[in-house]
């Protein structure tokens, strides 16, 4: 974590005409999208829009189904990447990951397990003093040091979500990718989570936030991409994208969008 913006002109991902088909279903449809390193961006879409599929393409779990000369699928300027090597550039946080911690794993172990890309620690894992120190720094930075010895199964969803952010930060990734990170958080947990995310964004870490909820888009995020039926529908500056017409069209319901203190809200009617 560093002070100041790390946003550079170097593209982190560069997609052109990327389509992904699975079980005969088109999950991504000719997606063209460039995200620079350190950029803070939201990808917004309704249920089933293809948001998780897009994340899988960003993390190189999915590759284009029909490569061709018109298809560009680059990560940091390269066509091929080992998914394992991505860890130092991208930290992934998803609400679903929390449910996979079913064993008695302490808050400290949740963060430490990021070094091993595992769910908790196992006997084969060799934890070094450097890893311990980094974990302490992260727990401190995220203001969750009091959770270090608490089992994940006995803490709230909001607290767990912040520990998962800590897990994603162990390799000091330039960009944090968050998949629907506020699912099941109550108002208080939501408030604390946003505060944490803003702190990370202000430290210069890039954010790719995937969500269907407008208020998840923290004020630091300036660019919003709308996705529906696996395709990018709009991509631009937040104020220009988050309009009644665009959001109403995206969710296929009449809405009024309003802005308050840098946050956006949509009300259906
Ligand atoms: N492996 C797969 N094989 C076939 N269809 C899939 C596969 N994965 C996802 N789908 C379908 O593709 C569509 C897009 O799924 P995806 O999970 O990317 O959407 P999403 O925007 O993340 O949705 P949600 O907000 O509900 O999580 C959905 O209709 C889903 O059922």
From TrEMBL:
SUPFAM superfamilies: P-loop containing nucleoside triphosphate hydrolases. It comes from Methanoculleus caldifontis. Signal peptide: none annotated. Transmembrane segments: none annotated. Residues 13-254 form the ABC transporter domain. It holds the Pfam family ABC_tran. It comes from the Archaea. GO terms for molecular function: ATP binding. The keyword ATP-binding applies. Keywords: ATP-binding, Nucleotide-binding. The keyword ATP-binding applies. This is ATP-binding cassette domain-containing protein.
